[in-house]
Amino acid sequence: MRHAVLAALSALILASPALAQERQPRRDLILECMACHGDDGIAKDREVPHLAGQNYAYLLKQLHDFQKGRRPHKEMRVMSRQLTEFELEEIADFYARLPREPKP
Ligand code: HEC
After folding, report:
1. Mutate to test the pocket of ligand 1, among 68, 79, 93, 94 (most ligand atoms within 8 A of CB)
2. CA torsion 30→31→33→37, rounded to 10°?
């Protein structure tokens, strides 16, 4: 009995941070994007587009197109393939809200 209570309690404790995180794009996913698109959505590499402040609907469409292969690009297809619809929307929202100019 005590074990059951303990197990239930630890399940609750383990579940709550996960619940809180669900409202934000998974940090580890964004970290992967940052490697190419910059920490603030402003890419350092000239061949990589800036994402900060881009229109939400446009970002979401590009992610769908990469995922479905309608916009061919090897890296972006790999990156988008693992994302759920919810994650795509959250990521598009995240980048759309970032300021267009990097912080001075
Ligand atoms: C290996 C480097 C790399 C990684 C990692 C990467 N991208 Fe990209 N991304 C690119 C490149 C390069 C392009 C330009 C594609 C092209 O030339 O069509 C691009 C294009 C895009 C575009 C289209 C932008 C536009 O203006 O049309 C979006 C949106 C995007 N990436 C989102 C993401 C997201 C979200 C992640 C993380 C899940 C991610 N990228 C991870 C390299 C990367």
Report:
1. 79
2. 110
Q: What is the pLDDT of residues 8-31, one digit of tens each?
A: 655 555 555 544 445 566 677 789
Query: Could you tell me the distance, in angstroms and rounded to a whole number, from the CA of residue 34 to the centre of ligand 1?
Result: 10
Residues having CB within 6 Å of any atom of ligand 1: 29, 32-33, 35-37, 47-49, 51, 59, 62-63, 73, 75-76, 79, 91
Vertex 29 angle, CA 101 and 100, to 5°:
10
Q: Convert the pLDDT of each residue in 57-91 to its tens digit.
A: 999 999 999 999 999 999 999 999 989 999 999 99
C-alpha distances in Å from residue 104, one per residue of 2, 49, 87: 56, 20, 30
Pair 52, 95: CB distance under 8 Å: yes
